[in-house]
Structure formats: structure tokens, C-alpha cells
Amino acid sequence: RPTLLVLGAAGRLGKAVLAAALASAGTVAGASTVAPRVLAVSRDTERLKQAVPEYVAAGVTFVDGDALQPETLEALLDAAAEGTSPEAVRVVWCVGGRVQVAPVEGEAVPKAPGPEDVDYKGVRDLARALSSWRAKRGVTVRGESLVSGELAADTFRALDDFVMGGVSESVMKLNVPARDVAVASQESAAHPDHPDNIFFEEHDPQLHPHNQPPVAVFEGVLRSENNGGFCQQKRTFSNGAPLDLSAWDGLELRVLGDGRPYKLNLKNSPRPEDVFQFEFTPHAGEWTTLRIPFPALTPMTRGRPAPPSTPPFDPKNVLSLSLVVSKVSTSGNATKNYAPGPFRLAIRSVHPYRSSPPALTVVSSAAVTRPLWTPAKIEAYPVAAKIPIVALNPSKVLDWKRRGEAAARAACYDAGVPLAIVRPVGLNDQAASSGEPAVGQGDVVTGILTREKAAEAVVRVAMCESAANKTVEVFAPWSGLFPRFEVMLSAAKLD
Description:
This protein is of the alpha/beta class and about 500 residues long. Helix content is about 25%, strand content about 25%. A hairpin with a 2-residue loop joins strand 13 and strand 14.
């Protein structure tokens, strides 16, 4: 039975999250039919109990605590884990900061925690504390990376088309500094000149992209002479002894491409012509996360799909892993848009992963990226660009929320902690409240949503495996043609 630890439970959205959690039994596809155990954290639990006596009767556990005091977070997490597994603890952050109002002349106004304290520092400190807490207790949902910049220099060897008389050539460069891997667009959150990274360089250097761990780079030149046209870099495990990946569901890649399709090969058999293969095309000049479930691997023989009678991939018996770029696709046909010439794929990691719901769900806000939109994007989405919160951005709340998101992603990715970020559109309890909430991405959605529906979405995200490592906007659908909430979550892209 999962435990939901709700930080910010005394706020209006926090109370709605408590109600949604208590009502969640049987509402989440593929999850237990029992509602989670719910812990509500507040600095004044007696006052909160008096405000919501029905939640006391329903079995909510109330815990005194201050989500903005990093030194207290471990004790709160321990309270949530009492009587259950640490892996069952799912944290929901819905703490609200107060936008600072200029005091009336002559009046002293005590400084309440503002957006910087709550939406940036609070979120960052919680993500780091949760990552440390899970690591101390041996909770992990991913294995050691099979490809990274920190491997030994002789880990990979080239198997280019010279084996067939071709003249293509490749190399796997290791220990490449992160600053040497260029991100194409300055709008990208990974670009060193992005305004948030300029801020991080001064105030939180470990979040700056140049200070990330070194990466591996698969690069070379494809040439078509002599019927060539492929390059491969192969890692053989433990001198031929099989690698057992049966505890995992698949492989998660963090890569930056050049627009070309690439392939990942895994081998069960020593026969050189037999592999299990997955083709992917990462975004050009942008870091991309993608997952390859083991059942999605295609059995191949001599570069063609193997017969249907071929046994399925056996994760207990992995002999090698290869990265390939080729003029032939996994379908056995010519690769779309293939062209000879240089190629480059940067790899931060290739982790075995196990599917798990988010250990941390952060409630942020729609519109957090819009203060930084270019004129071209403002022209493309004029309504989204000109909503009042973007024009006002009081106390720079959107900027602090965006930086908090970035800090949470960095801490959770580095530690392998499943994270979800939920960005509700404008919260207005006068909005229509019928039907399921809908899911969007790209921060272009507008509209209003009741806190009840936003809270329902937050709880369903926190309980859903396919929500992990994703950032989604939630809004009230404008028609009845939207798929079910969990279907939309499953289709959403990884961060």
C-alpha cells in the first residue's frame, strides 16, 4: 500500500489533494484498488485538524513539520515510511509561497516565505533530501549505466563496415567534458547562455550544464564506397560472461543527437548475425530521454527482421551492447533520409530501469517558460503569451518555479529518483468541474481548472507508473473527445 506524504497540506490545493487521495481507490488504471495511506504535513496540525475534521475521521495522519526546513525532511520521510517500504513513499509538493506585497508606509510587515524560498529553494532542497534518503535505504529503480563518459578507454571497439570492405570509420570518445557537447538552441534549458544557467553559474554552480559529469560521444564518418554505410561501437560484457538484466524492465537513454536515426543492439547469441535491435532518432542538438522496454526490441538476422519463430529477448543473457548508425533501418529497408558524411551522438547514460510511479510529484504552474519566449514563439501562441500571470509575473514567481523544476530534475535524474512535475493552468474554483482533467505538454495550454480537478490530477500522477520523469500541464478539456487521463500520461514525452 503506497503512502502519500503531502507537503503543503494546509493550503487550499493541499486540502484538495488530501480529499483526492482519500477518494482515489479504484480510480487509477493498473494501481491497487485501495486508497493510499495519507500523511498531511503542516506547521500547525491542530489547526489543520480543526479545519478538516472529516479527514481525521477518514484516517489521515497529521504530522508536525516545516517543508522549508531541510534538516527536518528526513524525519518527515521516516514518518511516511513507518510500517511500509521506503519505496512505497510518494511525496507530493504543493507548498505555496506568498507573493510579497509592498508594505504601507510606516507599517512593519514580517517577511513570509516567498517564491524564491518556496518554489526554488524548497523544491530543490526536497529533491536533494529525498534522493539522499532513498540512497541511504538502498531504494533504486535503475542500475549502473552501461554507457557513460566515465568508462575505461578500452570498453568499446569499432565494428565498422571495413569488415565488409567499406571505408566508414567511427570512434567512441570517453570522458568528454560536458561543455564540449554543444546544445543547438539558446532557448534550450541546457544551453549555457540560458538565463537560468547564468543564474545557476553564480548561485548554484552544480546545476550549470558545464558542471555535469563527462559524457561519451559516438562519432565518425559514413561513406558509401564499396557498398559500405554503417558504423558500430560495441561493448562486450565481462569477457563474454552474460550480463543479467532480468531485474529491470528495459533501458533508459539520455542522448543528444544530430537528426540521424541510430540503433541500439543487444545480443543473446554469440552468432555475429543475430541481434535484438531498437531504432531511435533523438532530437538534433537537444538532450533527449527515451526508454526502450525489452519487449520492444526487434530480433534481427543479417540486418533483416528475424523469423517470427525466433525466441524473444532474454534479459538474463546479455552478451554485448552496441550503438549503430547505418543506411539500413530496423525494418530491413533503407534508412529514411540517410546521407553519407559525419555523424555525432553524445551519450550521458544508458541505465537499466524498472518502472515505478513518481517518488516525488511537484506541483508547479503552467506558463513558467513564457517569460523567456522569443518573439517568434509569442507570435505563434499569442493567447498563451499574454495571459495576466505572464505579464505581471509577481515577485518573479514563474521564474522561481521554473528554476525549482530544473533543480528537481537535476537532483532526481542524478540519483535515479522518479519525478513528475504537474503544471496546472489557472486555478479557479468557479470553473466547470465535470469530466476528467486533460494532459498537455510544451507549456502552451491556457484555461482554468478547479482545485478539485487539479488535485485529482496530482494524485493520479503520483500513483501512475507512466507519469514518472515527465512534465505535464493539466487543464479542463474543451470537448469530450480527449482520451482517458492515464492514456494521455502514457503518451507524454519524457523530460
